[in-house]
Amino acid sequence: MIKATGLCKKFTKTEMTAEEGKKKKKLQKKKTEFYAVDHISLEADPGEIVGILGPNGAGKTTLLRILGCLMDATEGEVTLTDGKGRVITDRMEKKQKIGYLSGNTKMYGRLSSREILSIFGEVYGLSKEECKSRIEQIIEILDMSSFVDNRIEKLSTGQTQRAAIARCMIHQPEIYIFDEPTLGLDVLVSESILEFMKQEKEKKKTVLYSTHYMEEAQHLCDRVLMIDHGKIIASGTPEELMERYQVTNLRDVFFSLRKEQDMLQNAEKLL
Amino acid sequence: MKRLFTLYKKEMLDVIRDKKTIIIMILVPLILYPLMFFAGMQIASMVSQESAHKAYRVSLEGVSKEEELRTLLTKEEDEREYYFIVKNTSTPREDLEEKKIDAYLEMQESEGKLKFQIYYNSSIRDSQTASTMLEKVLEDYQEQLRKEKIKSSGLDLETTLYPIESELKDLSSQEQTAGYMFGSIIPMLMIVSILLGAIYPAIDLTAGEKERGTMETLLTLPASSYELIMSKLLAVSTLAMISAILNFLSMAIMGFLVFQSLLMGDTKIEIHLVTFLPAVLLALLAVMTFSLLVSVLSILISIFAKTFKEAENYSTPLLLVIMLTSYVGFLPNIELNTTLSAVPVVNVVLLIKGLFSFQYELSHILIVLFSNVFYSLIGVFLLGKVFSSERLLFGEEGSIQLFENRRNIKEGQMPSIPDAIFLLACCLMVMIYLGAFLQRKFGMLGNSMMQSLFVILSCLFAWYIKADKKKLFSLRVPKPSKLLGGLLLWVGTFLIMMLLGVVLTKLMPESVSEVSEKLGQYMQELSMAEIIVMFAVVPAICEETLFRGFIFGTLKERIKPWQAVVLTAAVFGLYHMSVVRFVTTGILGLALTFAVYQSGSIFVSMLMHALNNTVSVLTMCYPDWFETHLAWLIQEELSGTEVGILIAGAVAAIILGVSLLLSSFSAAKIRRSS
């Protein structure tokens, strides 16, 4: 189980603004602080796929990077609970339990899949023998035998993606974090990834998954969180949400939410 | 530990499969150096063949004993690899211009002496050689005439002409001479190749990973940022060391070939290559610590870049600085001492140079090794800090504006700290290399020329990055109260500096006299006005433009004001390159920078600086006058009460000056805000 309470991430943005002086235009650097993630709390249980939905720039990637321990939160904390109910707070131990995959986590082009898997396996603390048998197992699961010894740069997009999935499951994590894993991929490849998530769910693994493809999430997720401007604007099962807004798909839920937000803001301004 | 090793394996595997790395690491030393070497030999032999047995055309004007000279000139000797053809011409000057002849002689006879004038054109190589050859012939002629005269007077030829006989005996072994020759070239080549061997893998494993998007993959692993960066560092330094060894071997083989050819040419050279072995092994040890340092530096620089190309741009200054510094091996009379052993790059160059001529001290080698390890550790510490910064791994970071196309730079920006460091590095280069040359050639004038280069460089930089010059260089007419404050502050500072100077002179007596000796030497050659201009006015303008102008102007925008003031003062102190003067000039720098900061005008500090130098120069030029009128100013023994009075005066002046500067500042602030 993964649990996050009150997560915040503050970034500083430097902007050049032109200021009209008495005679000349003067350029001034302006530093503005903003929250990419603004007090987000969430929980995901084993055997559950939780979708994190939102438009580009909503803060999905930052949130998932914090959950995956790639980044530190400015405020709040992330705790993991393993199968025996033990609470894990150590960063290294947390990473040991998490499999992280995103569109940004590219593979080493000059290495072969097998090399990457064995190196990563060893860093995760597997012994050489364990590592070998685990790699054989994965090759079978993902059907990689035809290209496992080729350099990554020679592989097709689909094959590369399979290698990337293999990379994140080498240490049998209990929690998977996927950041837009299907972005820019064709139907076949993305289908195989979605299939993989479903299988892991069956194995009682926790899956956190972000996307901006609403339809995809609607079919796959047990629960969804909608975020915008770093805040959760709605959460619940897809069915609940659709019922709440009297619509037939998640996309329309999002649009209704946006409208609601705009109206609220206008009302605030009027007041 | 095991995790680190696995990560190291990954980094090695990744970088070794990069073609660029292999080419630079292996092909350069194994192919390029021998090629360069043989091409060099070819050209050298071509040049020497050309000049051998060459005929030079000369003509003689008004020479009375023409026949005698003519036979001397046209005589062909075995040891003389040249001979002359005498041409008769009525217009020698025109002929020389049209290159029909190489040189001509004119002779006049007066008071029993023969006066010769050799006309030549120094811009033509053949003419130049012909003139020196003619000089030699005339010397021979002189010798011949002397001998004839002595013979005719009946004196003994040998004892009259050569009453003294001297001979030079070089006690250095042949290994030493050959080693000295090699010692000046090898360190530079090796340092450059280690640099190249380190920089490319460093870029590939840092900026390259970011560009390819594998950095985030790496960060998902349960390894600390320290383990990640250490594995990268280990991989880079392994490659740097391999490339160093390859280069070293290639060079050693070349060296062996050179010795072989020398042996064939001249039987007098005796070289025992075995005696070089300990030197080579020690050099390798030094090189290894150096390659560690270089690896740390290149990673530290390239980690700031987002792309491979950007990282290449960033490492260019590093490459330049280290390469230029390694030229120190070519400078004569510079040897490794305790201080230089702690200077990076210079220490390795001088150590290897020394080893090749069998001059080394164990303590120096140890200092070199430890200082390199020490600097590397500092670098590793910084790396750990930098690498854990998320902004560097995911986001944006400032860049050196100098490497941007000028068109893309916005008007009125302030330079970044890397800009200031780059300018400072350039100025130091100018000072160390060009400065030494100019000073040797033009004396004190050369020093002033070098300092005016500071101004030119600062202004060029400011122009290129389109900086707001008024703001950067604090170009403002100072208010009288601020000027007064600055002057009072200087009076106090000067008194303190003087007292400190007395103390420091007692502690380290030799180091101070150097400056006054130099000054004494110039005093005899130059007039008082010239001395004041060269020692006080020029340094005040030039150094202030660089330190209080560009460097402080940049720093005050980027870091806290008090940090900027202290840092500028420290850099100013270091610039004087002497331990004793670091303290006093550092304090002066503090006062000068503070005055500029509070008055907003560089002219205040220029005036303070000029006054300071003028008074110092005057105390040295007119010690007698000061002795009678202001004895306490130059005395080395002061009584307790005198010290007390001086300190009280200094403190009072400083407090008054600072308060004046502060109050006027707040007034300006109020005016600005309204």
Mean pLDDT of chain B: 78
Rg of chain A, Å, rounded: 21 Å
Strand order of the largest sheet of chain A: 6-7-8-3-9-10
Low-confidence stretches of chain B: 395-403
Q: Give the fraction of residues assigned to helices of chain A.
A: 25-40%
Structural Rg of chain B: 32 Å
Give the fraction of residues assigned to helices of chain B.
over 70%
Number of strands of chain A: 10
User: What value does the average pLDDT of chain A take?
Assistant: 85
Tally of separate helices of chain A: 9
What is the string of helix and strand elements of chain A?
Answer: EEEHEEHEHHHEHEHEEHH
Total helices of chain B: the number is 27
Q: Any idea what the shape of chain A is?
A: globular
Portion of residues in beta strands of chain A equals 25-35%
- In terms of quaternary structure, what is this? heterodimer
The total of beta strands of chain B comes to 4
Strand content of chain B: under 5%
Largest interface: A-B, 35 and 28 residues
Strand order of the largest sheet of chain B: 2-1-3-4
How far apart are the first and last residues' alpha carbons of chain A, in Å? 43 Å
**Biggest pleated sheet of chain B:** 4 strands, mixed
In summary, what is this structure?
With 271 residues, chain A is α/β, with parallel strands linked by helices.
